[in-house]
Amino acid sequence: MSDDTPTPDVLIPDVVSPPTFDEAVRTGMQRLQDAIQAFDELAGRIPEEAYHPAETKVLEATAAEVQTLVDAGLIDFESAAYDSEAWYHIVEDLQRVASKLYDAVFLMRDVEKRLAREAGAAEASDGGTVV
């Protein structure tokens, strides 16, 4: 072996250990709380009539999916008293709910951007009018 050849230890990648269960629950809960907060803030700023029909359908479908996941989480929570594996389903459900909420948040941000563009265009067209 020459001096330029890496030793076998260098060739072995660092193994990333999975998070502990407590870390996974904490991370899942924090992500869910962040998603709920972002959703609530946007929902408070965007009037319902600002959404196009297709956007409303997407948000309604997301709400139905979130409700289904929450219901499944409640069942898993009740099952956890008898089945320790149910906690893993609860963590998965937390992640799914947060992901669905973030999908809705992204759509709502697009609506908010559209409203801002429309408001800017309206201001620009009003600026050229002499009263």
Mean pLDDT comes to: 82
* Helical residues, percent: over 70%
Strand content: under 5%
How many structurally independent domains?
1
Q: Give the class from helix and strand content and strand pairing.
A: mainly alpha
Description:
This protein has 131 residues and is an all-alpha fold. It has one domain (21-45, 52-123). 75% of the residues lie in helices and 0% in strands. It has four helices and no strands. Helix 2 (21-45) packs parallel to helix 4 and helix 3 (53-79) packs antiparallel against helix 4. The longest helix has 42 residues, at 86-127. The radius of gyration is 24 Å and the shape is flat. The termini are far apart. The model has no long low-confidence stretch (mean pLDDT 82).
In a few lines, what is going on in this structure?
The protein has 131 residues and is mainly α. The protein has helices spanning 8-11, 21-45, 53-79, 86-127.
List keywords for this structure.
131 residues; mainly alpha; 75% helix; 0% strand
Map the helices and strands.
Layout: H1 8-11, H2 21-45, H3 53-79, H4 86-127
